[in-house]
DNA sequence: ATGCATGAGTA
DNA sequence: ACTCATGCATA
């Protein structure tokens, strides 16, 4: 049910449009920089064209940045990356927004969260592989031109409702973990039952399980993914 | 740094 | 309904 997805995924295809939901500090800077992307795209993937090129080739290639998939290399790169990033005096958030200025087709900005997760290896193996060349490109670019300007957060506006984060209490969380230990993928009915027992919304429980599964798959976690 | 959530793509 | 990449909000 979830196998053949070992190809380079689609990481920069999220429009990121809270539109109706949480319309706060978005439209301005993000909309502009996204509008500037040469490839607006639906299925954009900087590796897409590459894949096509490789379709007729043997089981290997050897161009472009490394397509290595060794967790050790990723770990080493992540470490070096963080080190150099700090050396440059740049924050994770800065890196995220700076990626857009790189003008790589199909690559927009990323959040502080994602950069942080990349550095701490808390992303899936595939995600790490996909992001590595992009962050590497940024790093080289930034080091090459160690003297530019910073875009500052145009945090303005006031008045739109913000998303509120649900917080699952410790006791409930412990129960969920216990359930997860025996059954990581409970059926819809099971989820409903658990939700009722813990007095949580069914959707909250469902998402919790999804996130737990995703966590298990991170390179940083205790994964055996590859 | 991390918890809960969204949304596109998929099976 | 799930996976996967990603992000807002928050600790």
TrEMBL record:
Q: Which PROSITE patterns match?
A: HOMEOBOX_1, HOMEOBOX_2, POU_1, POU_2, POU_3
List UniProt keywords, sorted A-Z: DNA-binding, Homeobox, Nucleus, Sensory transduction, Transcription, Transcription regulation
Domain POU-specific: residue ranges? 66-143
* GO terms under cellular component: nucleus
Superkingdom of this protein's organism: Eukaryota
Annotated GO biological processes are: neuron development; positive regulation of transcription by RNA polymerase II
Per the record, DNA-binding region residues lie at 161-220
MF annotations from Gene Ontology: DNA-binding transcription factor activity, RNA polymerase II-specific; RNA polymerase II cis-regulatory region sequence-specific DNA binding
The organism is: Geospiza fortis
Q: Which family is it part of?
A: Belongs to the POU transcription factor family. Class-4 subfamily.
Q: Would you tell me the protein name for this molecule?
A: POU domain protein
Q: Which is a Pfam family this sequence falls into?
A: Pou
Question: Any idea where the Homeobox domain is?
Answer: 159-219
Q: What is its main location?
A: nucleus
Transcription regulation among keywords: yes
Entry's localization field:
Nucleus
Q: Which SMART domains match?
A: HOX, POU
């Amino acid at each position: 049910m979830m196998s053949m997805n070992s190809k380079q995924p689609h990481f920069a295809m999220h429009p990121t449009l809270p539109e109706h939901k949480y319309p706060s500090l978005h439209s301005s800077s993000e909309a502009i920089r996204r509008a500037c992307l040469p490839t607006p795209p639906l299925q954009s993937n900087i590796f897409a064209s590459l894949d096509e090129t490789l379709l007729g080739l043997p089981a290997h290639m050897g161009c472009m940045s490394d397509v290595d998939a060794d967790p050790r290399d990723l770990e080493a790169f992540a470490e070096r990356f963080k080190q150099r990033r700090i050396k440059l005096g740049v924050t994770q958030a800065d890196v995220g927004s700076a990626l857009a200025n790189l003008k790589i087709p199909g690559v927009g900005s990323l959040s502080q969260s994602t950069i942080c997760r990349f550095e701490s290896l808390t992303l899936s193996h595939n995600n790490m592989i996909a992001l590595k060349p992009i962050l590497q490109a940024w790093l080289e670019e930034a080091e090459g031109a160690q003297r530019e300007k910073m875009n500052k957060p145009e945090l303005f506006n006031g008045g739109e409702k913000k998303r509120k984060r649900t917080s699952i209490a410790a006791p409930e969380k412990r129960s969920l973990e216990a359930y997860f230990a025996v059954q990581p993928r409970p059926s819809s009915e099971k989820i409903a039952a658990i939700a009722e027992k813990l007095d949580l919304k069914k959707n909250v429980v469902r998402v919790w399980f999804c996130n737990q599964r995703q966590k298990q798959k991170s390179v940083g976690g205790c994964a055996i993914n590859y």
